[in-house]
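pipeline/complex-builder :: batch 7 item 3
reading input block
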Amino acid sequence: MRYLVSVIHDQASLATAEEQAAIEVFNERLQDEGNWVFAGGLAFPGAATVVDNRGEDTLVTDGPFLESKEYLAGFWIIEAPNADVALRLAAEGSKACNRKIEVRPFL
Amino acid sequence: MVAALTRRFGDLDTAEEAAAEAFATAVERWPAEGVPPNPGAWLTTTASRKAIDRIRRESRRADKHREARLVYGEPPEPAGAIDDDRLRLIFTCCHPALAMDARVALTLRMVGGLTVPEIARAFLASETAMGQRITRAKAKIKAARIPYRVPAAEDLPARVSAVLAVLFLVFNEGYLATGPGTDPVRHDLTAEAIRLTRLIRDLLPDDGEAAGLLALMLLTEARRPARISAGGELVALDEQDRGAWDVTLIAEGHRLVRERLAAAAAGAAPGRYQILAAINAVHTSARDFRDTDWSQVLALYDRLVRLDASPVIALNRAIALAEIDGPEAALAAVDRLAGPLAGYHAYHATRADLLRRLGRGRDARLAYDRAIGLAGNTAETAHLTRRRDRLG
């Protein structure tokens, strides 16, 4: 079972060196214990572009599709047998990156 | 399986039909949802729920007797697959990833066997809304793979307290039911909460808070016969006929409190349910309201405040304080809670009572009016109205 673990942040600040180091340690653990699928940090929402090619013309719009104070700062995709394990890993991830986290199962 | 069901429900017809219904459900669901890890236990649990549903449907009167038996403890069943299965079910229904109202509804439905209309009525929701709440919760359990199991040891303390919080909420809603059209006391809810807490207590005998919550519920339930007057009015602790209290429930509650006091003496720090149970043990030990050991009550509230600094606990502490330092000191303590508790009926009711005792009739009347406006329980409204009208 795969879960998307989203990192939610509400300020224009990147991870500090200390947070980055804690994230590295956490990532290594995910890899060692077989929970790792993929992870990455994302550029600020201002760098986003929305593309809509459902109609005749391709519409390209500057900015994120959702304007809100809180934004997606990065994510992990983890492999976990059930929600208890996923939530426990998410709690550790939240501690490591020092940010709020959303856990959402893949279909 | 039918034998076990018969032992539990005392009726072969109920057992057989429940077993047949459980198999039918399995045939319907297993191909789509997969065979559960312990199929035998699953069938027995499902059949038990069907049987409870059937008993509820078929005979309300006989049901009352059965419920009474459940409150006083079921005849002991051999522990094993059935209990393990029910415990797993409770932990799944009370999973912290579910919203609190969904946990309560799901627990009553899946573990307690209450029907959706019954749960909807208890929480003043429409049947459609309650049905959706339960369906959504089940869908989340499935999609997020909330496991059907007793949590791992490191998660257990937090998860047990999540279960106890749900059961406490169910009990309180039963004990002081809200809504103009409902009975002031919903015995079906208090009985169900006691039954499920008893189950947790039996399954986790070393958990002090499970014992504490069970004792708290028993000692509260014991006073129920004296709590509502013949005229449907709430009777406060100082006016209750203590001879009407249920001595059997009190004895069991006291036994549990003594057990926890011994554990505390041996170094186990008591949690909030254990302290609340101890406070109720002091009240139920007094033959007369005037004999209440208020210094003991106040000391227990002081411990509770250190554990949980919520304004509601501070309010209850002030009520005990009034009996030791007098209503003036208590009123000063209560008035400090005006900010957080302005919308809470018990805050105004307590103030009204203290103002009345201080002879400030006009202020008391205003406070009673505020309390009556905020109270949601019919018996409580009647009680407050009488006290107000007696001011003259």
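note: Chain A has a mean pLDDT of 93.
queue -> next item
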